Structures are given as structure tokens and as C-alpha cells.
Amino acid sequence: MTREICRLGVLTSGGDAPGMNAAIRAVVRACVYQGIKPYGIHEGYKGLINSQIELMNARSVANIVHQGGTFLKSARSQVFRTSDGRQRAFENLRSADLDALVVIGGDGSFAGAAIFEEEFGVPVVGVPSTIDNDIFGTDYTIGYDTALNTVVDAVDKIRDTATSHNRLFFVEVMGRDAGFIALNTGIGCGAEEILIPESDQGIDYLIQSLESSGRAGKTSSIILVAEGGWNGSVFELAKALEKRLPDYETRVTVLGHIQRGGRPSCFDRVLASRLGVAAVKTLCEGESSVMVGVRNNAIELTQFTEAISKHNAIDETLLEVANIVSI
Ligand code: ATP
Questions:
Q1: Where are the beta strands (DSSP E) in the chain?
Q2: DSSP characters for 208-255?
Q3: What is the dihedral angle through the alpha carbons of 54, 258, 200, 189, rounded to the nearest 10 degrees?
Q4: Closest CA to ligand 1's atom 22
Q5: What is the pTM of this model?
Q6: Which helix (H) or strand (E) holds 115?
Q7: SS3 of residue 300 by DSSP
Q8: Residue-wise pLDDT tens for the chain (327 aa)?
Q9: Which residue's alpha carbon is at the smallest distance from atom 23 of ligand 1?
Q10: What lines the ligand 1 site, CB under 6 Å?
Q11: Can you tell me the distance from the alpha carbon of 288 to that of 117, in angstroms, rounded to the nearest whole number?
Q12: What is the set of active-site residues?
């Protein structure tokens, strides 16, 4: 089955991620390639509600493949969560004569897209883009690889200070519900311990581990903590640990928003280009209410309902690797 699309809207929604620009570029150019008019919607669903819709062409997306963030801007819109807000969004979409939408964002954005399609019959395809890599149906989300490299770069620098002063550094990275960033960067940076939401082992375990590191001759340590990897703040954790192990001088670094920024890695640019092209193709082939992802290096479609409700499990073998390489 094919679908005739004359005008297609593209927007970025939720938290920004490096590679969103490359994804917009791919969508716009895939449209032009297929004879579809591409429209950029500024500021996500908020821009749809406020009718910030602009006709684009292949040149509108020149010189952005290498830039972080999203030139269309992203937003979190409370109004879109209401049926009145979505009604206004639909009316603007109809005034602009848009036949279909590509939504680049995270699972929240797909939840909004699924409701919008169900209510108004507008075909939508999602492109997974979030640094957390926590979306079911794809091995990688756009922005994750760049975020990993940003964290590794920062922790390498912190290690120089840690080793120069015999300090114990806690580095908090993003990942409220998923420890993919912490686990992978922890291995990549040679962290002594990695605290992730999927495997909370408690302070006693941490103390035992540090004591055995000390006996093994380690004089400084780096502990990677996912935002949700500890029940409480990382500052409280550092204090609690100093109380129990007074010989340790602890420091805390919260990497925060630097993890979202920066030029996308080559991996993210290629992923974004593949997924952007695949999203337009998918809509033209008559599919919708799905997310395009990459599994085992092939493009795969996942229903929004599944992408929203399911979660990728952490790779248990990586936990074992982390334990082995940190002795
Ligand atoms: P990130 O993973 O970076 O947080 P996200 O896409 O999950 O990205 P959210 O803030 O959860 O980010 O969602 C983005 C926007 O999608 C929301 O601000 C809201 O406008 C819309 N949205 C999310 N959930 C719903 C919903 N249940 N109904 C309608 N709209 C929704």
C-alpha cells in the first residue's frame, strides 16, 4: 500500500539531542527527493499549536549536519496534553494542508503523536532522539553516542585530578530511569564502580568494593552514578561514604547539560540520516503510528504503543565486564 503525501511537517520535541539537526535535514531532503513539500514546525507541539509552520527546501537545511541542538527548536508543551490544545494543533495543520507528520523526539513525544493520530487521523512516524537510549524498538537513539563521547572526555579529565590527589570522585551522568550512559561510559572510562537504576546494590556493597580496591593498591577512584542510580542525591551519597570511610577525600561532579550539547558524532549523523530518510519512506509506504529504529543494523518499525510501554533491558554481560575490568 502506498500513501500520497503532498506536504509533510517535521518537528523536534522533548529534550534536545545532538543529531536532531541531521535528522531534520534527512527528512527535508528525503521529502524533496520524493517530490513532497517539507514544512518545518518550530518549537515542537507548541509551534503546531501556535502555527509556527514554515515551508522549507533542500537549502533550508544546509550547514546543519554538524551542529548540536535543533535549529527548529524543541519544547515541552503542557497545552498539547489537553484535547483543546491538540484540536488547535490539528486546525493549524489542516490550514497548512499538511498530510503527515514526522516527530523527532523521545517516548513522551511519541505518546503525544499516538494520541494525535488516533484523534484526528493524521499519519505520524516517530524518529527516536534522546541521549538516554531508553526507547524500546531501537538499539540506538540519536544523540546517545555523542553523549557517551562527551562523558568519556569529561571523565578522562576528572581522572587526571583524581589521580593527582588520591581522591574519590563521584560523577553523576544523565539517566533517571536507565543506566545505559553510566554503564557504557563507566566501562569506557575505567570507573571503579557504576551505580545504575537497574542494579542498586546499596552503600555496604560500595564500601566493600572500595575497601578491596584499596587493598588492591588503588589510590584514587571514579564512581559513575546515573541520575537514578542512587536512592537520593549524589552529594548525600558522597557525605555518607566519607562518614563511613574517613580516609577518603570525596568530590562530586554533576555533568548535567553538557551531555546534551556539542557536535554530533559521525555515528549519530549517520543514524539520524538513515532514520530521517526511513521515516519519510515509511509514511509514503502507507505505515503510520510507528517509530523507525535500527536493530541489528537494519531499519525496523515499532508501533508507538510498544515503543512507549516497553523498555530495553540493560545488557547483563556488560555488568559482568564492568566488574571484571575494574578489579
Ligand atoms: P526526552 O526523552 O528527552 O524527555 P520526550 O519526548 O520523552 O523526550 P516529554 O517531555 O516526555 O519528552 O514529551 C514531549 C512532549 O510530548 C510533551 O511536552 C507533550 O507536549 C507531549 N506529550 C507527552 N506525553 C503526552 C501525552 N500523554 N499526551 C499528549 N501529549 C504528550
A1: 7-12, 37-41, 53-55, 100-105, 124-128, 167-173, 193-195, 221-226, 249-254, 290-295, 298-303
A2: HHHHHHHHTT---EEEEEETTSSSS-HHHHHHHHHHH-TT-EEEEEE-
A3: 130
A4: 112
A5: 0.95
A6: helix 107-120
A7: strand
A8: 798 999 999 999 999 999 999 999 999 999 999 999 999 999 999 999 999 999 999 999 999 999 999 999 999 999 999 999 999 999 999 999 999 999 999 999 999 999 999 999 999 999 999 999 999 999 999 999 999 999 999 999 999 888 888 788 999 999 888 899 999 999 999 999 999 998 877 888 888 888 888 787 877 789 999 998 888 889 999 999 888 888 888 999 999 999 999 999 999 999 999 999 999 999 999 999 999 999 999 999 999 999 999 988 999 999 999 989 988
A9: 108
A10: 13-15, 45, 76-77, 80-81, 105-109, 111-112, 115, 130
A11: 9
A12: 132
Grid cell in block for residue 203: 552503600
Amino acid found at 117: E
Best mutation site among 11, 13, 70 for ligand 1 pocket (most ligand atoms within 8 Å of CB): 13
3-state secondary structure of 159: helix
CA of 289 relative to ligand 1 center, distance in Å: 15
- What is the distance in A from the centroid of ligand 1 to the CA of 318? 30
Q: Whose CA is closest to atom 31 on ligand 1?
A: 112
List of residues 6+ apart from 79 with CB closer than 8 A: 45, 46, 49, 85, 88
Domains of the chain plus CATH, in order, are: 7-143+264-309 (3.40.50.450), 147-260 (3.40.50.460)
Maximum distance among all Cα pairs of the chain, rounded to whole angstroms: 70
CA–CA gap between residue 231 and residue 220 (Å, rounded):
24
Specify whether the CB–CB gap between 254 and 172 falls below 8 A.
yes
Cell of residue 225, nine digits: 552514578
